[in-house]
Amino acid sequence: MLDNHHKNLATFIHLSTFSRFIIPFGNFIGPIVLWAANKDKSEFVDQHGKQAINFQISVLLYAIIIGTISVPFFIFKLFRGLDVIDFHGFHNFHINVGEPSPLLYIGGGLGALAIIAFIVELALIVKASLSARDGNLYKYPLTINFLK
């Protein structure tokens, strides 16, 4: 039987991921602390804690992948045409940003994808919190189950 205390704990586990806006890595610290302290009290709290932590780890992994793919596109565009071997100081150094390149479009598209993913992440956290408040289990989409 679920009581309001367990529902509130599960809700706060999801909402504690927003602490990252105040504390570095708060999106990991908050849910882990709340889950570890209360996982033995209820299976409901345990499941929501695992889901919140798995989702945050998955989001971090996806962000690293998108960043790893997009950063080289900007670097290649920035240093395209720069003669590294025959570099005579900064008097001949210039960066031409007048003409856009396909690499810049790909990198910009991946950056836009990252912004959209951030907004979707916030919406999913709110949805999971509301599900926990109502006493329902919630499974985040595209989540890798690190904790089972």
UniProtKB/TrEMBL annotation:
Keywords recorded for this protein, A-Z: Membrane, Transmembrane, Transmembrane helix
Listed Pfam families: MamF_MmsF
Principal location listed in the UniProt entry: membrane
Transmembrane segments annotated in the record for this chain: 12-38, 59-79, 103-126
Compartment list: Membrane
Annotated InterPro entries: MamF_MmsF
Protein name per Swiss-Prot or TrEMBL: DUF4870 domain-containing protein
Species of the source: Winogradskyella flava
Organism classification: Bacteria, Pseudomonadati, Bacteroidota, Flavobacteriia, Flavobacteriales
